[in-house]
């Protein structure tokens, strides 16, 4: 039964790939076909994942029998089902949102090819998280990378987009090389490419080799996940794509790297070594902090959101890194708590970041701009989009009663565990985690006050924004699904937490660990006493006190509300240019963290009749791209120099190249003779 | 059934106590500051009169404002009062049950701040934007200090629940090196969080020095009443937190009338003393330039980290 549904899901995706190409020239039809089938397949995907999570049975679907690389089959254990659920949930909302958005974005161009690529992209993500053979994993991984590359460069006439796409292609392929190194090493030591082979050989691989495999996997998957300092492609590539694709890339594509990392570490390399977790924790904290700090300085709304993906990958990996540390000390209950926190934040981030990217897409749809400093007052012209964007902003700032708070609360509890368990070295490594996570939360709140306050409140700062209209209903429904989920996963966190908890327990072999929650509140045991929070009760009491407050203000009778002008210090009227801009809003933090940002600014004043009445003032502020200049520039310089050396053997003569081939063949023959 | 009734009475009593005492504390600080400035100052009950008068007035709302501006007073009041209701005041029991822990308190205050800052930007006035921008800078730096300091306590108690933290202060003693460090760190941060000198000046409407007052400049009438009341509750809750964690004397460990009444007396006295200390600090220091504030908070962060290191290495 479930196999049939699985095949139906794959078939729906295949139809979504083929049919838009058939109706290539009619945008109305091919858009509906592509996103309609993607939505259907996503509903099937959610059903399959829920089934596989409730009844822990492995769905097996052998698809690629091969003598050389072993059988490749699509199977759903808990972890795969969890990622299938995440991917399908987000792609359902995105597929509902996409049709009107795509009709406008495509304009005169055909959207058929794009629709087909979109379906192929979603399908390849599903295949990546369900396949159980390293060889096919690599193929699907590559498929995912290439389709996403073509989705990014949809706007190929924009030179920035092309550059961003190229950077993405180069960096992720470097990452893929490391993933291949990890897999080939594993295969060479286990006699097969199947994940089953890897798992059974886990205990026989020598420790030194294991360390090498871990590092290769971390580099490879870390590139895709956008871990600092491998993140530089992410804030360029994600915003370049059309917004619904950005939502999928930031929401779930980078999470497939987390899937890969979890799979390799917990399945193939256990027992784990403690310093692996330490490295992950350190990189995670750095990513979280630098991600949010760079986000604060961004004014391109999509690039800002992309930096927040770097931040949230950091928060997710804090949980996972702590789980590695705890497992290496065989503290299974604490490891389960940490892994659950990480996985829960993963699905939460997919939801609220998807919502925010779709919201940014709606703004772009309605106004044609992505620059926050051009926006303003959108809450009045786009009330539904605005309210949903507010929900996403509150969730990503980890404020109760939304889902971001639930998973960050659990991450805080995991950190508290690390302070009380294990030996002192672990405690000292984890020392800075609590302040790092708190600072991340505080800065994220500052950043989203900036985004929401500047973009949606006060007066419009440009013509195109002043005339904005609410977006079509399909787009609102797509965002609405994610908005409702943001609230539901917060208020109902104790119910939804069972899913990642069960997945984590199966992965760690930690059955029989006391349950994390009762129906109403989280209860986490540390050292015998319990920490508890009930987001549902918080929601209820907040509402009750709100009613009490409404009653309080009526104690002295009902009073009227007068609409008046804002206090303007006696000038004639307030104009939009007098308001705080995003640049001005973030200036105090730019000054405080000037060591990290290394800000540059230039003021040009053109004098008028007297210096006190200047004709124009131009102000330019930028921050120094530290990673690009200090790390990547150097690597690129070395590569260019090497390429210059390699020019010596490339004379451009066919005869010479033929002789190279001949020599190579000869050497290979000698080499393989024995 | 009787136990449930008892808990309900405690909960309601707690909320009423917070609502009633908090305006008094703010006014007490004003009074003491006036004394230092050789003025007589407002009467101690002036806070109540102000609220009572504001509740009677019509509200004027900016023509540029959206629904965020109208909703903010209610969100701020709810979130702040809920945060105050989580912190035990006169008994070690959680006043309204297991709703939340200390992390929830911090993030509920964050929710209130988020909306206040949005309301500041909502009216298109550059004062509001200035206040919001500064407030978010100060608070995002203060947040790690509070969390770190509270984690030191949580490690000892093995829990982030405030009841457990206060109980463990009562049993394992509160005169420990790490506790003294975080007491100092928390006092600095409480001054920053409640917008008091040397970080911010609650008494000024001087354009360039405002932080919190700039954000709520456009509020009038009943909306202003809620905002003002919420900020006095915030002061009260942070002082209660410090009082009960570091000086848990007199807090009721059993539910009997005698213990409860002495608990109420104890918390009022302790908060009064702490409020007086804040008034003295406010009167004896000069307001810092905005960009010196991060250094002050950075100093308190160093204290909190030191305490955390001492605590997790088991040295104190």
Structure description:
The complex is a heterodimer of chains A (674) and B (316). Chain A has 674 residues and is mostly helical. Among the domains of chain A are: 271-549; 586-623, no CATH class; 629-672. Helices cover 69% and strands 6% of the residues of chain A. Chain A is built from 28 helices and seven strands. Chain A has helices at residues 2-22, 27-54, 78-106, 112-130, 134-152, 159-188, 195-200, 207-225, 234-240, 243-268, 274-296, 301-328, 332-367, 378-381, 383-396, 403-420, 424-430, 433-456, 463-466, 473-491, 493-496, 498-508, 535-552, 582-585, 587-592, 594-597, 626-646, 654-672; strands at 60-64, 72-75, 522-526, 529-533, 561-564, 599-606, 616-623. The two termini of chain A are 52 Å apart. The mean pLDDT of chain A is 90. Chain B is mainly α and 316 residues long. Chain B has one domain. In chain B, 71% of the residues lie in helices and 1% in strands. In chain B, helix 7 (177-193) runs antiparallel to helix 9 (221-246). Chain B is globular and about 55 Å long. The interface between A and B is large, with 90 and 93 residues. Strand 5 of chain A pairs parallel with strand 1 (59-62) of chain B.
């Amino acid at each position: 039964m479930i196999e049939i549904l699985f095949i139906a899901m794959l078939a729906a995706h295949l139809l979504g790939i083929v049919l838009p190409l058939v109706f290539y020239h009619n945008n109305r039809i091919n858009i509906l076909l592509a996103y309609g089938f993607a939505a259907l397949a996503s509903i099937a995907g959610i059903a399959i994942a829920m089934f596989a999570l409730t009844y822990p049975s492995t769905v097996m679907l052998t698809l690629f029998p091969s003598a050389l690389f072993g059988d490749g089959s699509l199977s759903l254990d808990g972890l795969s089902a969890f990622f299938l659920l995440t991917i399908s949930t987000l792609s359902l909302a995105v597929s509902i949102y996409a049709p009107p958005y795509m009709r406008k974005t495509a304009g005169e161009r055909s959207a058929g090819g794009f629709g087909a690529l979109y379906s192929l992209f979603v399908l390849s993500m599903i295949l990546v998280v369900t396949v159980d053979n390293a060889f096919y994993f690599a193929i699907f991984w590559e498929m995912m990378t290439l389709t996403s590359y073509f989705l990014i460069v949809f706007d190929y006439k924009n030179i920035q987009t092309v550059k961003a796409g190229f950077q993405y292609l180069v960096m992720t392929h470097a990452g893929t090389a490391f993933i291949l190194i990890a897999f080939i090493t594993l295969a060479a030591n286990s006699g097969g490419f199947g994940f089953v082979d890897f798992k059974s050989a886990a205990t026989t691989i020598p420790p030194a080799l294991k360390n090498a495999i871990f590092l290769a996997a971390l580099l490879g998957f870390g590139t895709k996940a956008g871990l600092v300092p491998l993140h530089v492609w992410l804030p360029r590539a994600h915003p370049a794509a059309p917004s619904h694709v950005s939502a999928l890339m930031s929401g779930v594509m980078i999470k497939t790297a987390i899937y890969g990392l979890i799979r390799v570490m917990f399945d193939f390399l256990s027992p784990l070594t403690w310093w692996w977790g330490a490295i992950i924790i350190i990189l995670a904290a750095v990513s979280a902090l630098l991600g949010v700090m760079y986000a604060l300085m961004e004014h391109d709304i999509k690039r800002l959101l992309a930096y927040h993906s770097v931040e949230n990958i950091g928060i997710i990996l804090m949980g996972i890194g702590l789980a590695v540390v705890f497992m290496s000390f065989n503290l299974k209950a604490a490891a389960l708590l940490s892994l659950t926190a990480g996985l829960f934040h993963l699905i939460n981030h997919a939801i609220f970041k998807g919502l925010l990217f779709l919201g940014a897409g709606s703004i772009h749809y309605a106004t044609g701009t992505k620059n926050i400093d051009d926006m303003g007052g959108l809450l009045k012209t786009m009330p539904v989009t605005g309210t949903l964007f507010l929900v996403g902003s509150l969730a990503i700032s980890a404020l109760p009663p939304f889902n971001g708070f639930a998973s960050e609360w659990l991450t805080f509890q995991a950190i508290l565990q690390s302070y009380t368990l294990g030996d002192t070295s672990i405690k000292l490594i984890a020392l800075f985690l609590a302040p790092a996570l708190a600072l991340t939360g505080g800065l994220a709140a500052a950043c989203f006050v900036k985004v929401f306050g500047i973009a949606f409140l006060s007066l419009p700062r440009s013509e195109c924004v002043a005339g904005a209209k609410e977006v079509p209903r399909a787009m609102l429904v797509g965002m609405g699904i994610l908005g409702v989920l943001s609230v539901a996963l917060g208020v109902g966190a104790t119910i939804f937490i069972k899913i990642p908890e069960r997945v984590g327990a199966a992965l760690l072999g930690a059955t029989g660990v006391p349950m994390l929650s009762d129906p109403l509140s989280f209860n986490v045991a540390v050292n015998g006493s319990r920490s508890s929070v009930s987001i549902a009760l918080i929601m209820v009491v907040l509402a009750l006190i709100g009613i009490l407050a409404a009653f309080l203000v009526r104690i002295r009778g009902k009073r009227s509300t007068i609409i008046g002008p804002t206090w303007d210090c006696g000038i004639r009227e307030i104009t939009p240019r007098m308001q705080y801009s995003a640049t001005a809003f973030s200036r105090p933090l730019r000054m405080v963290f000037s060591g990290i940002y290394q800000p540059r600014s230039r003021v040009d004043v053109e004098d008028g009749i007297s210096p006190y009445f200047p004709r124009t003032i131009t102000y330019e502020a930028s921050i120094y791209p530290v990673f690009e200049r200090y790390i990547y520039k150097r690597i690129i310089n070395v590569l260019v120099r090497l390429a210059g050396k390699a020019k010596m053997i490339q004379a451009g003569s066919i005869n010479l190249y033929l002789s190279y081939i001949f020599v190579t063949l000869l050497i290979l023959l000698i080499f393989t003779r024995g | 059934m009787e136990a449930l009734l008892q808990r309900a009475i405690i909960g309601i009593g707690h909320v009423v106590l917070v609502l009633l005492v908090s305006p008094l504390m703010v006014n007490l600080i004003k009074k003491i500051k006036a004394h230092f400035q050789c003025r007589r100052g407002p009467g101690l009950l002036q806070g109540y009169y102000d609220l009572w008068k504001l509740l009677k007035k019509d509200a004027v709302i900016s023509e540029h404002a959206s629904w965020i501006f109208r909703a903010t007073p209610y969100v701020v009041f709810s979130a702040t009062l809920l945060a105050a209701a989580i912190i035990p005041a006169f008994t070690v029991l959680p006043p309204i049950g297991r709703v939340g822990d200390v992390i929830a308190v911090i993030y509920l205050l964050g929710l209130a701040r988020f909306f206040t800052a949005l309301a500041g930007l909502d009216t298109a006035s550059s004062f509001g934007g200035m206040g919001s921008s500064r407030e978010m800078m100060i608070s995002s730096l203060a947040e790690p200090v509070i969390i770190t300091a509270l984690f030191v306590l949580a490690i000892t108690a093995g829990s982030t629940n405030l009841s457990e933290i206060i109980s463990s202060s009562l049993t394992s003693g509160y005169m420990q090196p790490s506790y003294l460090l975080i007491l100092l760190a928390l006092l600095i941060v409480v001054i920053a969080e409640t917008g008091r000198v040397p970080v911010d000046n609650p008494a000024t409407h001087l354009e360039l020095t405002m932080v919190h007052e700039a954000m709520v400049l456009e509020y009038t009438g009943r909306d202003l009443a809620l905002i003002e009341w919420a900020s006095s509750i915030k002061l009260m809750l942070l002082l209660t937190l410090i009082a009960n964690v570091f000086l848990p004397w007199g807090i009721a460990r059993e539910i009997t009338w005698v213990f409860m009444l002495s608990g109420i007396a104890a918390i009022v006295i302790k908060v009064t003393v702490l409020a007086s200390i804040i008034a003295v600090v406010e009167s004896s220091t000069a307001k810092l330039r905005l960009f010196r504030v991060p250094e002050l908070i950075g100093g308190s962060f160093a204290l909190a980290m030191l305490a955390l290191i001492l605590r997790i290495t088991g040295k104190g």
